[in-house]
Amino acid sequence: MKKLIFLLFLPLILFSCNGRYEHETIPNVDLRFTIYPNSVTYAELNHYGGYQYFTGGVAGVIVYRLNEDTFFAYDRACPYDWDQSVDSWLWVDDSGLLIVDYHCGAKFSILDGSPVEGPTSLSLKHYKCRYDGASLLVYN
């Protein structure tokens, strides 16, 4: 009987958290806005590889233009320490290829939001994008 109890609790012991608690989810908040990425108002999104910051979501939103018709939108809240402070907000680095949390050191690919380096194994929170050639709807 003791062996059975030990075997039942073994997974809990092996997979328990050590040190920092990593948040598995960033809260869901309603998000819905429309922009016109080819207008001068959004000049940074007029070209491939361009990005721009917007309000909304949990900590703001990064919209990135991959090509003519493909956009990605990520919440600026870092999945590792999103609730700590505004210091944990995400920024696009100088290369334009990585999204970085300068507070904890986490780095994410701007192409899919996956972690590249740092203390987290969680990807960025994505928002949906629908582009009709003129307007871009960002929503969840």
Write the layout of secondary structure elements.
Elements: H1 2-14, E1 32-35, E2 51-54, E3 61-65, E4 71-75, E5 91-92, E6 98-100, E7 107-109, E8 115-117, E9 126-131, E10 136-139
Antiparallel strand pairs: 1-10, 2-3, 3-4, 4-9, 5-6, 6-7, 7-8, 9-10
Describe, in plain words, how this protein is organized in 3D.
This protein is mostly beta strands. It has one helix spanning 2-14; strands at residues 32-35, 51-54, 61-65, 71-75, 91-92, 98-100, 107-109, 115-117, 126-131, 136-139. The N and C termini lie far apart (49 Å). 9% of the residues lie in helices and 28% in strands. The chain contains 1 helix and 10 strands; from the N terminus they run H-E-E-E-E-E-E-E-E-E-E. Strand 7 and strand 8 form a beta hairpin.
Amount of beta strand: 25-35%
Mean pLDDT: 84
Task: Give helix % range.
Answer: under 10%
Number of helices: 1
Low-confidence stretches: 4-23
Rg from alpha-carbon coordinates: 19 Å
Q: Which sheet architecture does the biggest sheet show?
A: 6 strands, antiparallel
- Give me the secondary-structure category: mainly beta
| Helix-strand topology string | HEEEEEEEEEE
Give the neighbour order of strands across the main sheet. Answer: 1-10-9-4-3-2
> Which quaternary structure do these chains form?
single chain
**Gross geometry:** globular
Question: In whole angstroms, how far apart are the ends?
Answer: 49 Å
